[in-house]
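Handout, page 2. Input:
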Amino acid sequence: QLEGIKKGLGHPAVKAAGAALVVTGGAMFALGKAAIDSASQMENFLVQLEVLLKDSGLAKERLDELFKIGSTTPFELGDLVQADVIIQGFGQDANVLRRGVMDLAGALDKDLSEAASAVAKSMAVGKQGSDGLRESFALLYTDVLKRAKVLGDPLDVKIWQQAMTEALTAVDGVVAGGTD
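Output:
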């Protein structure tokens, strides 16, 4: 009987079935690992937002909102979370600036975090702290400068912030629709 089993194990169909089991097992392991990694990433994003917003309920709402945005734009969830962290970290309202920052990155084919950083720094410090914006996002910088001059003194941080907000939220702004 042992001889029959040995012969059966050498049969090509049995070898193929064994190989298929190994491949399937490996794929299932990879799928399980990916699910764990994804859950871990989501938890990490949630913790970042909880620290930033100081409220777990608000953090969960924000993560849900960013997840929806990520499913309808070219940006990954991690990039969206990072951009929100940067904007909020500089004391600005990410809910107000997010769409404009996304359009800025999309229109100029730039990294979302880079766009968020340039905008947030410029908003926090004003025209004097806008080197990154001027160098990497000259189109927006020029628009903000023009708007600030109409509002008053471009060196006034409050005027600069207002001009930046207008430039990023205007439906006819220079970067409007850059994500579309």
